[in-house]
Amino acid sequence: MSLRSHAGAASSKLIAILVAIATAAALMVVGTGTAAAANRDWLRGDNSGTCDWDGAGYWVQRCDVWSQAMGRNIPVQIQPAERGGNAGLYLLDGMRATDASNAWLVDTNAAALYAPNNITLVMPVGGAGSFYADWNGQASLSSSDPVIYMWETFLTQELPTYLEQNFGVARNNNSIGGLSMGGTAALNLAAKHPDQFRQAMSWSGYLNTTAPGMQTLLRLAMLDTGGFNVNAMYGSIVNPRRFENDPFWNMGGLANTDVYISAASGLWGPEDNGVRADHRLTGSVLEVTSLISTRLWESKARLQGLNVTADYPATGIHGWGQFNSQLVKTQGRVLNVMNAW
């Protein structure tokens, strides 16, 4: 082979290599799912918390985030925004939140729903019966196994720092939503921290926790949930903190917030097929209680001129058929308000 032939062959190989590199680079920029790969395919973590891949899939990371207020690591399941956007959506759990996983990834799949979107899902794990509040004292009646709840401090001071540093979530560009107990907390936290949350959603929440009889109902629910003492949360029935943390009396901070509330009728519907009869009965009572408090809250909020959207489905009990339908129904609203399509 002549020198010219050798040069031609080498030149052809070089061109082929350059074409391959250029093609791969182009695919990384414009190929299907490649934007997600750029922002989602690596684990976050720093000195205040480390992350591992979560079994839920869809790029969800389970991060142990240190809470100085609670003196322990708090697990948080996080799905990064698809294209690195700085919006965040906090999804809060219900009364029986477990330490295994946030229920939005177990009883429904919020991560699959929001996988195509440019918003970071933030799903704290644990906090059963806490109402995601800062408690006056330890929650548990047993001194040998103390449960310290300082969730408001964690969600509004400690976690935002971690999210900003590791996931690029802005401190002032967040939405928050929750079911049942989490719905109560979502409106409370948004009202008390309007600079953090631009949107708040309550799905079957209890929005008048100081109404007659509610203290007794909460006492029974907390004892059943974890043997917790309701007086340790905000003090006795006459303590002012009970009113400061009741959405019915704590709505002034929502003046510039997009608010969505929902509660169903408690009547069984197609979405409740397969639910055990005893659970249906309990779910009906719980949902009717939520409906009454939600309608009362809406009436007062409108008198105060708040920007509220309310949805009252004709059927549905206090269960995941209802909660999941609201998650899906509000997705477009969240993405529009947060500019995170």
From TrEMBL:
Listed GO MF terms: acyltransferase activity, transferring groups other than amino-acyl groups
Pfam family, one: Esterase
Stored PANTHER family: DIACYLGLYCEROL ACYLTRANSFERASE_MYCOLYLTRANSFERASE AG85A, ENTEROCHELIN ESTERASE-RELATED
Protein name: Esterase
Gene source species: Corynebacterium callunae DSM 20147
Lineage summary: Bacteria, Bacillati, Actinomycetota, Actinomycetes, Mycobacteriales
